[in-house]
Write a structure and sequence with these properties.
Strand content: 15-25%
Shape: globular
Distance between the termini: 40 Å
Bound molecules: adenosine monophosphate, magnesium ion
Number of strands: 33
Helix content: 25-40%
Radius of gyration: 27 Å
Number of helices: 18
């Protein structure tokens, strides 16, 4: 029978665009190509062809079969970081015009190092997405209960619409105080803007905070609205390019992308800022999926790529959802899977500080273009990848399966003159030191991630992925009592893999103003239940509309209701999923509050329970999802410890711990379940490389996951 492909997932990182394809049996294949920021569809096609070639599939046949295609990119984040978005204006409530330049206190310090936090003199404000001269205030006021004590002053509104529109802008954001409680004034302002545009023959997109993110707290709301206005368009253009190039090859569905809280959304999704950090989220979802397969509750997931180093935790089988994350120095009311990211990828530039003579890594990197010196594409500033290349970690004829030939003499020469000579070391010794420094930085960051959350390294399995993840896995876990150290033959496209492990889903949120006493009577519970039913029904209608417009089958949609509950008077809330069918009865309210106290006492302590204060619900959410086909990992038969002869590629000298040592070289894809490869060895894949130091062994399990056992600790124990 011919192969039927079902899902295509793509993660366009700062350096590489990775593909993961799944067929009807749950088998999969990966592909890789350099990211092409000028037109991401080029990288998309290159990368998918790379995967298709391995399955010997015709491109048209494959594209016409895909049921789901996910594309997660980095355009939005880069647009924000480099401040290269749209020229937009902001109309807000009079008196709040300086909101963007003042910023919320916490946001001002976001992204600052400890040293910079100590020295307030070194500290500068975020440069606002909307310059102050493009911000205008109009007289109006909606209160927190949704009442309108001051109507929109229409003459004022008209004049201001005119002023803003005469500034040659590309989009307009409108964000009034408390518009989440009543959008009437914002909507009227939008109408006035439309009239003013019509009079001027203009047609700018309008972004209303009550549509983009109708939640309490104006700072987070204005951030979401301006980011949507500023950065969503360039992303949408890229996503449509990608979809068009897929459609031109026979793709019959619509393209989807990854939301920062997990779940797929159509690229026509009106709130694209929700995909701000999509790629790394895929990795966390993938790690979560595998954690369930391995039945291991605690995982530290580390993704080492060419550009960044991302890591996140799964504890007790769940990842943390951060409801107000700080991304690119913006505090957002955007639920996202919690993860940390540092500029620590293998592409980081190296230099020597002329005053202190210390080696400096980054913060900039070479990306895929021009790439490291060894790519021979014009860049002469050495990178960490150049160190890895000259010290024998990387196979010069196997980079991206040999598509990029590494020029070792060029890398050696630049490292020699720009780094080694200046610090007075032999070039390989200098490269060795740099690799150690790089690993140490990554190790410190990851260990801290567990410790600041009160965890114990010994309870966690560390999973390493990304092109360079398997290269650093041994180093990052060295001397740490991890429960297990594991990587995967598909590590190089792991985040793309993760995108295929999640359902097609949307999450809708609404602010609310419910509170209830602990000894409430039936009437009070009925009133609360009715209020919740009304909001959830509204959200369900919204979900329906969007699923229909995306051409999805409504019969397959499943709904999950979520309430954000807190004790009366508290500032923070707990996300409580309602885990049975909602009937809107007083018994449902009892159950919801029980679930809340259950979670609350798990997160804090039994003694922290405080029902006397009553309960408040200031936000509800609805998650609507459709299940997708997931990759499968059947248990294969063990083939014994000795790898097949074809897997052994020979020996290579690797410079480790101050000397050249001979390493066994293996083809990762030809290893069989049960195989054990003692260190020192290098396991090569077309897009990634696993270093097995002398103190470790690589063990292939029955799902072909690769464990790095620590021989000094007598692993594996079972
Ligand atoms: P990523 O950004 O996740 O694609 O990771 C890219 C990094 O993977 C590169 O900078 C290399 O350091 C590393 N890498 C290791 N082995 C290979 C390989 N065979 N081909 C390409 N990249 C590799
Ligand atoms: Mg990557």
């Amino acid at each position: 029978m011919t192969r039927e492909v079902l899902a295509l997932a793509m993660d366009a990182g700062g350096t590489m665009t990775d593909t993961f394809m799944v067929d009807r049996d749950g088998s999969f294949v990966i592909g890789k190509a350099p990211t092409t920021p000028w037109d991401e569809s080029e990288g998309f096609i290159e990368s998918s062809l790379d995967a298709l070639a391995q399955w010997d599939l015709d491109e048209r046949a494959a594209f016409s079969q895909f049921e789901v295609a996910v594309y997660a990119g980095t355009t939005m984040l880069n647009t924000l970081l480099t401040r290269t978005g749209r020229r937009i204006g902001l109309i807000t409530t009079r008196g709040f015009e300086d909101m963007l330049v003042m910023e919320q206190g916490r946001q001002v310090w976001s992204g600052y190092s400890y040293a910079d936090r100590l020295h307030a003199a070194t500290h500068v404000h975020n440069s606002p997405l909307v310059p102050r001269r493009h911000v205008r205030g109009v007289s109006e006021r909606t209160d927190m209960f949704g009442k309108i004590p001051i109507p929109l002053y229409e003459h004022d509104a008209r004049r201001i619409a005119g002023e803003v529109l005469d500034q040659d802008l590309q989009g307009l954001a409108i964000c009034f105080l408390h518009s989440y409680a009543n959008p009437a004034n914002e909507r009227r302002m939008a109408e006035i803007c439309r009239e003013a545009m019509a009079a001027r023959g203009l047609d700018l997109p309008l972004y209303l905070s009550s549509q983009i993110r109708p939640v309490i707290r104006e700072n987070q709301r204005v951030n979401a609205t301006t980011i949507e206005a500023y950065a969503a368009d360039p992303v949408r253009r890229q996503l449509h390019n990608v979809e068009n190039s897929a459609v031109a090859r026979g793709f019959r569905k619509q393209m989807t992308t990854m939301l920062s809280y997990g779940g797929l959304a159509n690229i026509r999704h009106p709130r694209l800022h929700e995909t701000l950090i999509s790629g790394p989220i895929g990795g966390m979802l993938g790690a979560h999926y595998i954690a369930r397969i391995l039945d291991t509750p605690n995982v530290l997931a580390v993704d080492m790529g060419g550009t960044s180093y991302d890591f996140g935790l799964i504890t007790n089988g769940t990842f943390n959802l951060n409801n107000e994350p700080e991304i690119a120095r913006f505090r957002l009311a955007l639920p996202s899977i919690e993860l940390d990211s540092i500029r620590g990828g293998a592409g980081l530039y190296l230099s020597v500080d002329p005053i202190t003579n210390r080696i400096i890594m980054g913060p900039e990197g070479a990306g895929a273009n021009p790439g490291p010196v060894c790519f021979d594409r014009g860049n002469r500033q050495p990178t960490i990848t150049d160190c890895l290349a000259i010290n024998g970690y990387l196979n010069k004829d196997n980079f991206l399966g040999g598509k990029v030939k590494l020029n070792l003499p060029a890398a050696r020469q630049e490292l020699e003159t720009q780094i080694a000579a200046k610090v007075g070391l032999d070039v390989h010794e200098a490269a060795d030191g740099i690799i150690k420094l790089w690993l140490q930085t990554a190790m410190d960051a990851t260990r801290r991630a567990i410790q600041v959350r009160g965890g114990d390294v010994a309870d966690y399995v560390i999973m390493g992925y990304g092109g360079a993840g398997p290269l650093v896995l041994a180093g990052v876990s060295e001397g740490q009592p991890f429960k297990g150290v594991v990587t995967f033959p598909f590590a190089a496209a792991f985040s793309a893999f993760g995108c295929t492990t999640t359902d097609y889903s949307h999450r809708y949120t609404r602010s609310s103003l419910f509170s209830i006493a602990s000894a409430a009577d039936t009437a009070a519970k009925e009133a609360l239940a009715a209020g919740l039913t009304r909001l959830w029904n509204e959200l369900e209608a919204e979900a329906h509309e969007s699923f229909v417009s995306e051409g999805m089958d409504l019969a397959k949609v499943e709904y999950r209701r979520v309430a954000f509950v807190r004790y009366g008077g508290q500032l923070d809330e707990v996300e409580v999923p309602f885990d049975r069918a909602w009937q809107g009865t007083p018994a449902d309210i009892d159950h919801l509050l029980e679930r809340f106290e259950d979670l609350y006492t798990k997160m804090f302590a039994k003694a922290a329970k405080y029902p006397k204060a009553g309960y408040a619900i200031f936000q509800v959410a609805l998650v609507a999802s459709i299940e997708t086909r997931k990759p499968e990992f059947p248990l294969l038969a063990e083939q014994g410890p000795t790898p097949p002869a074809a897997a052994k590629k020979g020996q290579r000298e690797v410079y480790l711990d101050g000397r050249w040592q001979s390493a066994g070289i293996y083809d990762m894809e030809l290893l069989e379940p049960g195989n054990v490869i003692p260190g020192l060895a290098v396991l090569e894949h077309p897009a990634t490389t696993l270093l097995v130091p002398g103190t470790r062994q690589a063990r292939v399990d029955r799902r072909k996951f690769i464990w790095l056992d620590n021989l000094q600790r007598g692993e594996p124990s079972t």
